[in-house]
Write a structure and sequence with these properties.
Radius of gyration: 21 Å
Mean pLDDT: 90
Structural class: alpha/beta
Number of helices: 10
Low-confidence stretches: none
Order of helices and strands: EHEHEEEHEHEHEEEHHHHH
CATH architecture of the largest domain: 3-Layer(aba) Sandwich
Strand content: 5-15%
Distance between the termini: 51 Å
Number of domains: 2
CATH class of the largest domain: Alpha Beta
Largest sheet: 5 strands, parallel
CATH superfamily of the largest domain: Response regulator
Strand order of the largest sheet: 2-1-3-6-7
CATH topology of the largest domain: Rossmann fold
Number of strands: 10
Helix content: 40-55%
Length: about 260
């Protein structure tokens, strides 16, 4: 199989344990126009690469070195591991029990390829996503492609953003960096809105137990808020949550939500 040529604006990582599959994928990526290709066989090595090198595409086994790789994918999407949360990620699923596949999906890859692998199928999926990448859903626990077939009636709709697509037609290094900045700004705003939504929900319930799990959320707001009034309000709420003073918690929540409204453009 000779894949279509395309312009890769960054590195490609092939993290596959099987040497024959790894070599075949590396050769096929090279034939398709990729010049910066790294192959890796161990989980630790993959983590080091993701920590140090920006990439645009990752093909990875669901386990490496006997350990699952899903947590690495989740950390990429959450912005905790890689330079940005938007590389195209394809997972080869060797573990095919329903609960295992659901756990993989929850980590946020762009596509899961059931083994045994067809190189043609993988590159067909790459071509499909290059033409139209799915929007990303942003929730408290998930950042990744929107896999809903249709919105659920009566349910609160999640926040949606458009991720940059490094393989889209006409994209070059400069335009991808611009799209990446836009995507990162959109994600930051979406995460902020998600956090504020959680606070508003807890306020409506008024139960102390509903605020307990929000301490990490508020701590994150303290770290990421760029508006001084918002950062101050988040810091005060974090202190109130730790003091478990419900009247102060509610007052600080109102102040934080008001500061957020005032800081909107």
């Amino acid at each position: 199989m000779r894949p279509d040529k395309r312009n890769y604006v960054g590195g490609v990582v092939v993290a596959i344990a099987n040497p024959m599959i790894r070599r075949a994928l590396t050769d096929t990526f090279r034939q398709s126009g990729a010049n910066d290709i790294i192959d890796v066989t161990e989980r630790e090595g993959l983590q080091e690469i993701l920590s140090s090198k920006p990439i645009v595409l990752l093909v990875v086994d669901d386990t490496l070195s006997g350990l699952p790789t899903g947590d690495l994918i989740r950390k990429i999407r959450q912005g905790q591991l890689h330079a940005h949360p938007f590389p195209l990620i394809f997972v080869l699923a060797h573990q095919q029990e329903e609960n295992q596949l659901k756990a993989l999906i929850a980590c946020g890859p762009d596509a899961i390829i059931i083994t045994p692998l067809s190189i043609a199928d993988l590159f067909s999926r790459i071509d499909f996503l290059a033409a139209e990448r799915k929007p990303f859903v942003i929730t408290r626990d998930y950042i990744g492609p929107d896999r809903r077939k249709e919105p659920r009636e009566g349910a609160n709709q999640p926040i949606i953003i458009r991720p940059p697509n490094p393989l889209a037609r006409g994209v070059d290094a400069a335009s991808f960096q611009k799209a990446l900045k836009t995507g990162q700004d959109s994600l930051k705003t979406a995460k902020m809105e998600c956090s504020l939504g959680q606070l508003a929900w807890a306020m409506r319930s008024g139960k102390a137990s509903d605020f307990v799990d929000l301490i990490p959320v508020v701590d994150h707001l303290v770290e990421t808020a760029t508006v001084p009034a918002l950062k101050t309000a988040a810091s005060e709420l974090a202190a109130a949550l730790r003091a478990e003073d419900m009247s102060e918690i509610m007052a600080c929540c109102r102040k934080l939500l008001a500061s957020a409204d005032q800081s909107k453009p």
